[in-house]
Specification:
By secondary structure, the protein is mainly alpha-helical. It has a single domain, classed as P-loop containing nucleotide triphosphate hydrolases (Rossmann fold), CATH 3.40.50.300. Helices cover 53% and strands 8% of the residues. It has eight helices and four strands; from the N terminus they run E-H-H-H-H-E-E-H-H-H-E-H. Strands 1-2 form a two-stranded parallel ribbon. A two-stranded parallel sheet has the order 3-4. Helix 1 packs across helix 4 and helix 3 crosses helix 4. The radius of gyration is 18 Å and the shape is globular.
């Protein structure tokens, strides 16, 4: 929706995918730390297998051990992703000085990267919607989706923390049209370089 209004966008997930391709330094470090069992026969990292090792089978699985593995993965991947994001933002700024450049990422606060941005926009919805949307996205049953979403959310700050840090909050719980209206308000505020006084 932001891109349709004229914003430039890069996704942290896409950057991390590129950095985990064979031949990349991040790929080599991830394989060194997590072992050859995460590789497909063609040498590509099997992201589901890596996630299983990093996140553990559930938020409680292995307790501290599961947490340390995701931290281990983040220590390898986050600095490289942040460098790429910064290079991209600098490039957009040089080519289009008045542009709105957006980095879509789930772990900006967790990675300590929030100081590199002028504004933070948090998009949220109700927990049950996360499960339903994940189930629809990857075509699985709701219980499998619930376990996967809870496992991933356990590695993130709670919504309350993210909302407190945000300049803008977009509630994505209702219709797409309602979400679109919020996006348009935030975009106008960003385009006018306004400092938000209340959360949208």
């Amino acid at each position: 929706m932001f891109v349709a209004l004229g914003a430039h966008l890069i996704q942290a997930d896409e950057i991390s995918h590129q950095l985990m391709e064979p031949g990349e330094a991040v790929y080599q470090e991830v394989v060194r730390h997590f072992g050859g069992s995460i590789l497909n026969p063609d040498g590509i990292i099997n992201r589901a297998r890596l996630a299983e090792l990093a996140f553990g089978s559930s938020p409680q699985a292995g307790s501290g051990k599961a947490a340390s593995r995701i931290e281990e993965l983040n220590r390898i991947v986050h600095p490289a992703v942040i460098r790429k994001q910064e290079e991209w933002m600098e490039g957009v700024g040089r080519r289009h000085p008045q542009a709105i450049a957006i980095v879509e990422a789930a772990l900006i606060l967790e990675a300590g990267a929030d100081k590199g941005f002028d504004r933070l926009v948090v998009v949220t919805c109700r927990p049950e919607q996360r499960f339903e949307r994940w189930a629809a996205r990857i075509k699985t049953d709701i219980e499998t989706a619930r376990r996967e979403v809870e496992r991933r959310m356990a590695a993130q700050f709670p919504d309350e923390v993210k909302i407190k840090a945000a300049d803008y909050v977009i509630d994505n719980s209702a219709s797409l049209e309602e979400t679109r209206k919020q996006v348009e308000r935030v975009f106008r505020s960003l385009a006018n370089d306004e400092r938000p006084t209340t959360k949208d």
